[in-house]
Structure formats: structure tokens, C-alpha cells
Task: inverse folding
């Protein structure tokens, strides 16, 4: 069974959207699903159908140039002087004797003319190609607009992942502080610690809770913005899957051939080429045939006073030399347009390659930082554990222990932040290549 391509595409899109909605209902969402949902929900998507409809209408109108052109006209005139046939002195025959009379001053005419193009110099064919090329440019412009959605989705999606990492670290910090609170409470009974030590821990717990509340409120805002973008409700319980680290992936190769901007520049260049063909078609002669039928007084015989039917058939060759006056300048304008497109393409590739180098450098730098973060966390854990032991033995104050706990938490939070940031930078690099 053969499926219509447009229908098949709609079926695939519907299936993808249904799968994404199912995933949302189970509280799990991936960044690829967000891309697809945002693409289908974005208002610009409706313009694709409008571009196709406009193209089809323009092509249909251009094709009608091959159809016979019918024109109906009617005139009624009165003139001050009409052609007269008077006998001159010395003439042997009087026109009146031959039944010839002077033309009437009042004349009436109704004509129906049918013109058929035989050769138009390729103007209609060129107009159809221009119409297709203009529609292609508009579609590519929409593709560029739709492409920008991925950057906005990346910012929201990874922003939520960064908040999740901070919330998890804040929860761990609070748990660690509660353990320390229990430990200090036991030390108070032994007389090793006092109430001020316990209050200091309580202050740190409240500050951690306050920080977590702020993070959750910001997360709610990001979720609302993401929901608006993808057209689906993303609840607070929705789990956003963190994409894998694509170390060694081909994404790091500087290949820009898949960018929609390059397709747009190609489409603009093809449009300029077709416009040049249309310009050349205007220099050629045009040939057509016609049939004229009429009813009037007088008819083709100008000396008859009665209404008569008449007709005329023939061929007409026309050549408009006025187009030669502006041809050279118009051709230069089109060449300038093509040169501008080429310069724009080169500028885009230059800037995009610079973005690639900068982004690839960010990825390399973050990998190095994460490696150092691991060492810092490992050292901070040892220091923190020793600090807790010293407090239990009365060799260190609780405030000193709290400083070490906070330093360890900051190190873990920095590492978690760098890990999410690394994935985000990788996806920015993928987006530069449209990978």
C-alpha cells in the first residue's frame, strides 16, 4: 500500500507527539522530546502551509498565461466630421450612382477578441520558476526561525537540570547538618558542647532550607516557561533526563553543511538565477494569434449604414525594445544581489567556525575543571571528616567544623554545576552544527 508523503509525515509527527505526551504523563522528559514538541507547538509552523498555498496559487496564475485571453469591448461614438465621397469637377462617375454614401457621424461597435500565445520568449516558464524559488526561500527562512528554538529549549532545559543539581546538593547539606546537630546534641550532654554551638548549626540548616526554597521557586518559573514552549504541562514532579556526555563524538568536527542558513543562501542564489532568466525572457519577441468577432455600424465596410457582423483572424509579432534600455542595470543589480549572498555566506561560515572553536574550547576547559573538582572534593571530604573528629574530641570548635562542611558542600555543588554545564556546552556545540 502506498502512502501519501504528506500524510506519512503527519502520522509520524502525531506518533511522536503522542509518545511525548505519554512520557510526560509518567513524569519523564528528554531534551529530544522537548525539541519535537516545541517544533510542533511553535506558531511559525503554520506558515509552512501558507507558503505552500501561496506558491500553488502563484503557479496556477502563471500557467493561465498559456490559456486563450478573451476581451469584450463596446464603443459608441459621434464625430464632428466623417469621410465624404464627393464627385470632383470633370469626373465621369458620381459616387452616389454606385450606391456609395458618406460615412455616418455616429458609429457603434461591439467586439470579442481571443488572443492565444504561441511563443512568449520563455516568460511564463521563467515566472513559474521564480514563483517556486520564492516559495523555497520563504520555507528556508522559516527553517532558520525554527532552528533558533533549539537554543531557547537548551537554555530552559539545562537551566532546570542545573537547579536540580543544586537542590540535590542542598538536600544533602541539610542531611549532613542534621547529623551534626544530633552529634552536637549528644556532646552537650557530655559537657563538650554548649547551646550556642547547637544554635550555629540550626542557623546553617535554616539558611540551607531558605536556599532550597529559592531554588525550587526558580525551578517552577523555568518549568512554566518550558511548558509554554512545548505546549504540554510539565509538573514539578517531572524528571528531566540528563543527556549523556558525548566524549569523542563527531560533534567536535567543524562541519557546518547541515545548517539551515546555508540552505537559505543556496535558495536565495537560485532565486537570483531564475530572476535573471526572467529578465532575459523579456528581451525576446512574442508571437500570438488572434480571432476578433464584432457587430457594429459600420462594419468592415465603412460605407454601409446598417449594423453588420464581421470577423478578423491573424497573427501578431511584437518586440518591446524598451526592456533593452534597463537590461544592463537590472542584470548588474541581480549580480550585486548574488555577490551579497556570497559575502553573507562567507561571513556566516567565518563567525560559525569561530563559535565552534570557542565552544570546543569551553568543553575542553570544563573537562579539565571537573577532573580538578574530583580532587578538591576528595580532599575536602578528608578535611571535613577530620574536623568532625576533632570536634567530637574537643580539639576544634563547631564553627570551624561548619566552615569545613560548607566548603565541602560548595566543592560538590561546583562539581555538579560543571558536570551539567559540560553537557550544556556539548549541546550548544551540537546546535552550532545542527547535529
Result:
Amino acid at each position: 500500500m502506498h502512502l501519501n508523503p504528506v500524510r506519512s509525515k503527519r502520522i509520524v509527527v502525531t506518533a511522536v507527539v503522542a509518545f511525548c505526551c505519554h512520557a510526560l504523563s509518567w513524569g519523564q522528559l528528554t531534551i529530544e522530546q522537548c525539541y519535537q514538541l516545541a517544533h510542533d507547538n511553535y506558531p511559525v509552523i503554520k506558515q509552512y502551509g501558507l507558503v505552500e498555498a501561496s506558491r500553488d496559487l502563484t503557479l496556477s496564475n502563471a500557467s493561465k498565461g498559456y490559456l486563450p485571453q478573451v476581451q469584450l469591448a463596446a464603443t459608441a461614438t459621434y464625430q464632428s466630421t466623417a469621410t465624404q465621397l464627393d464627385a470632383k469637377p470633370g469626373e465621369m462617375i458620381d459616387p452616389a450612382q454606385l450606391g456609395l454614401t458618406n460615412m455616418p457621424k455616429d458609429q457603434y461597435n461591439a467586439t470579442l477578441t481571443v488572443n492565444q500565445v504561441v511563443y512568449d520568449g520563455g516568460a511564463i516558464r521563467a515566472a513559474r520558476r521564480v514563483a517556486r524559488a520564492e516559495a523555497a526561500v520563504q520555507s528556508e527562512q522559516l527553517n532558520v526561525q525554527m532552528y533558533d528554538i533549539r537554543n531557547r529549549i537548551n537554555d530552559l532545559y539545562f537551566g532546570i537540570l542545573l537547579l536540580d543539581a543544586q537542590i540535590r546538593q542542598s538536600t544533602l547539606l541539610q542531611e549532613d547538618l542534621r547529623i551534626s546537630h544530633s552529634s552536637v546534641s549528644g556532646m552537650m550532654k557530655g559537657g563538650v558542647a554548649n547551646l550556642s554551638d547547637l544554635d550555629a548549626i540550626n542557623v546553617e540548616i535554616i539558611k540551607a532550607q531558605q536556599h532550597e526554597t529559592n531554588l525550587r521557586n526558580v525551578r517552577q518559573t523555568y518549568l512554566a516557561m518550558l511548558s509554554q514552549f512545548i505546549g504540554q504541562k510539565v509538573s514539578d514532579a517531572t524528571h528531566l533526563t540528563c543527556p549523556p556526555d558525548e566524549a569523542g563524538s563527531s560533534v567536535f568536527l567543524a562541519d557546518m553543511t547541515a545548517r539551515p542558513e546555508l540552505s537559505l543562501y543556496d535558495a536565495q542564489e537560485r532565486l537570483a538565477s531564475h530572476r535573471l532568466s526572467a529578465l532575459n525572457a523579456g528581451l525576446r519577441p512574442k508571437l500570438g494569434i488572434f480571432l476578433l468577432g464584432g457587430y457594429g455600424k459600420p462594419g468592415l465596410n465603412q460605407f454601409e449604414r446598417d449594423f453588420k457582423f464581421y470577423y478578423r483572424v491573424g497573427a501578431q509579432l511584437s518586440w518591446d525594445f524598451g526592456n533593452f534600455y534597463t537590461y544592463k542595470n537590472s542584470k548588474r543589480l541581480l549580480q550585486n544581489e548574488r555577490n551579497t549572498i556570497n559575502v553573507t555566506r562567507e561571513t556566516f561560515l567565518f563567525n560559525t567556525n569561530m563559535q565552534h572553536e570557542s565552544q570546543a574550547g569551553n568543553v575542553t576547559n570544563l573537562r579539565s575543571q571537573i577532573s580538578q573538582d574530583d580532587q578538591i572534593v576528595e580532599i575536602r571530604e578528608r578535611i571535613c571528616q577530620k574536623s568532625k573528629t576533632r570536634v567530637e574530641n574537643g580539639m576544634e570548635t563547631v564553627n570551624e567544623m561548619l566552615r569545613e562542611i560548607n566548603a565541602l558542600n560548595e566543592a560538590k555543588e561546583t562539581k555538579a554545576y560543571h558536570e551539567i554545564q559540560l553537557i550544556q556546552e556539548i549541546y550548544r556545540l551540537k546546535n552550532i552544527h545542527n547535529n
DSSP finds eight helices and six strands in the chain. The longest helix spans residues 322-392. Residues 127 and 293 are 31 Å apart (CA to CA). The beta strands are 28-29, 69-78, 106-119, 239-240, 286-297, 308-318.
